Amino acid sequence: DASMYAHYLFNAFDTAQNGSVKFEDFVMALSILLRGTVHEKLRWTFNLYDINKDGYINKEEMMDIVKAIYDMMGKYTYPVLKEDAPRQHVEVFFQKMDKNKDGVVTLDEFIESCQEDDNIMRSLQLFENVM
């Protein structure tokens, strides 16, 4: 079920937060994701996770995103996902990203942590040869 993740993705594309995505918004986001700098891609990704757009990612927002991703993956993954996998994923995310341990992740903490992680940096390059 990808409906919840699609909802969060739509909100990230809806830069005016008016319930619609203009073609220009769509093209700009694709441009960032395909050809943007590392900082632009990470800023866009942070915006996806910052559901309430307050400039911070809190555990509830991250849990909502992670649950949406797990719902999209389905119940029949291999290896089988444990019931508390989303919560564990969020805890690992915060251990890595919440540098000052204040319970929220700022854009600066997010960018710094992502740049320190080779897997994340490689994943940002996945679409560079698409076009």
Automatic annotation (TrEMBL):
InterPro entries: EF-hand-dom_pair, EF_Hand_1_Ca_BS, EF_hand_dom, Recoverin
SMART domains recorded: EFh
Pfam families in the record: EF-hand_7 (PF13499), EF-hand_8 (PF13833)
GO MF annotation: an example: calcium ion binding
Keywords for this protein: Calcium, Metal-binding, Repeat
GO BP terms, alphabetized: regulation of potassium ion transmembrane transport
PANTHER family: CALCIUM BINDING PROTEINS (PTHR23055), KV CHANNEL-INTERACTING PROTEIN 1 (PTHR23055:SF82)
Gene symbol of the encoding locus: Kcnip1
Protein's name according to its UniProt entry: KCIP1 protein
Gene Ontology annotations for the cellular component aspect, listed alphabetically: voltage-gated potassium channel complex
EF-hand domain ranges (all copies): 1-36, 37-72, 85-120
